[in-house]
Design goal:
This protein is mainly alpha-helical and 150 residues long. 51% of the residues lie in helices and 11% in strands. The protein has helices at 3-16, 19-26, 30-44, 62-88, 100-107, 111-115; strands spanning 49-50, 57-58, 92-97, 127-132.
């Protein structure tokens, strides 16, 4: 079984104080929830929950394991969110070939919109703009248009 998933299942069982409540919220069967908790107990070599007919009780070993699982799961979520943001946010240098005054006056104010107004800062590693005054002469104007085919 997946260790991270089992940690999440244990945390949900303790949070809900119920195997069936955790199973409903996680959309798993009670047997699957029980298997996750048992697999985690086997991996750690100790009983994490005392199971009774009314509700599971956290053991002396289970309490610190639960706290660490919560912290670990929170950190994993932060890592997942930060990597997702890196993959969806524009990064790099936007090369603009235009007269510098045009770039400063007309194009620079658009940069926050292009890169996402909430995430753009001048000192970030996101999107930046490079203005060029001179550009190479082209024999065929179509070579500048990358989106069109002949």
């Amino acid at each position: 079984m997946d260790l991270i998933e089992s940690m999440g299942v244990l945390a949900k069982v303790i949070e809900k104080q119920s195997f069936s409540g955790a199973a409903r919220e996680l959309r798993l069967s009670q047997a699957a929830v029980s298997k996750h908790v048992r697999a985690l107990e086997d991996w750690l070599g100790g009983l994490l929950l005392n199971r009774t007919t009314r509700r599971p009780n956290v053991t002396e070993i289970g309490a610190p394991v639960y706290q660490r699982c919560e912290r670990s799961l929170d950190e994993i979520e932060v890592v997942q969110q930060s990597t997702s943001a890196l993959q969806t946010s524009p990064r790099g240098v936007l090369h603009l070939v235009a007269p510098v005054p045009f770039g400063i006056i007309s194009s620079a104010p658009c940069l926050p919109t292009i890169s996402g107004a909430n995430s753009w800062r001048a000192d970030s590693e996101g999107l930046s703009m490079a203005l060029a005054r001179n550009y190479p002469m082209c024999e065929n104007a179509r070579t500048l248009d990358c989106d069109r085919t002949n």
